[in-house]
Write a structure and sequence with these properties.
Blueprint: E1 13-18, H1 24-37, E2 40-45, H2 47-56, H3 61-65, E3 71-73, E4 92-97, H4 99-107, H5 113-123, E5 128-132, H6 139-150, E6 154-155, H7 169-182
Parallel strand pairs: 1-2, 1-4, 2-3, 4-5, 5-6
Helix pairs in contact: 1-7, 4-5, 4-6
The structure holds flavin mononucleotide and 2-acetamido-2-deoxy-beta-D-glucopyranose (NAG).
Length: 203
């Protein structure tokens, strides 16, 4: 009997979406880490994620696409496998998730492959984690998040913790990405900074 993958996942396969909210580095670091674990990743980037990759990071769009250990799929390709619930996966992480994509998912308006793959995760009861990012939040944003949270979608705002005494942005990003991947039961020791798991005040 082959032993199960040591990653905590059943199918060892995750879908990752990146949209045009600021903070595309969260998705990039998640992809890099999932690659080191040998998890099969399928990446879908929106047009505005391409813009933030260029604007906010030192990576090219091609560098980011190459992080996928499965494939990087065109967002307009509605015939891609994750368009169907019959294609198995362990769920989907959208990091970052814009308010526009949040709204599309909430409404079930699956006009591109990111919102369709998320729609499939909801209907198949597979984990869906949305790293939403906006501030301040309007009642529209909050209602969309509430509706999805009630369906079991994990609303994961990109909000740093400070109990780790972060020394810089890398610490903050790694800790947040570790907590995002915790939601899937993935082993996150390589990302979790010292003091990254709260164990009460130390003497
Ligand atoms: C530099 C930049 C930063 C942005 N930051 C955010 C953000 O944090 N949250 C958000 O909801 N939209 C943000 N937007 C706007 C989205 O990119 C825009 O709504 C877009 O239509 C989202 O489409 P998508 O979800 O298909 O990527 C930003 C746009 C740019 C250019
Ligand atoms: C962030 O995590 C990566 C992947 O495990 C690691 O290589 C890097 O050193 C970490 N960065 C910091 C600042 O801890």
């Amino acid at each position: 009997m082959p032993s199960p993958p040591p990653t905590g996942l059943k199918h060892n396969r995750l879908i990752v979406g990146m949209t045009g909210a600021t903070g595309v580095i969260y998705g990039v670091v998640a992809m890099q880490y999932l690659r080191t674990l040998g998890i099969e990743t399928h990446l879908i980037k929106s047009k505005w994620a391409h813009a933030t990759i260029k604007y906010e990071t030192s990576y090219s769009v091609a560098d980011v696409a190459a992080l996928a250990t499965g494939r990087s799929w065109p967002i307009r390709d509605m015939a891609a496998p994750m368009s169907s619930g019959s294609w198995k996966s362990d769920g989907m992480l959208i990091a970052p998730c814009s308010m526009k994509t949040l709204a599309a998912i909430r409404a079930g308006y699956s006009e591109d492959l990111i919102s369709r793959a998320a729609d499939v995760c909801i209907k198949e009861r597979r984990p869906l984690v949305l790293v939403v990012r906006e501030t301040p939040l309007s009642a529209i944003h909050l209602e969309n998040m509430l509706a999805l949270a009630k369906l079991g979608v994990i609303i994961f705002p990109a909000v740093p913790a400070f109990y780790t005494r972060p020394k810089g942005l890398d610490d903050i990003v790694n800790h947040s990405v570790a907590r995002m991947l915790d939601c899937f039961g993935i082993e996150t020791d390589g990302l979790m900074p010292a003091e990254g798991r709260w164990e009460g005040f130390r003497p």
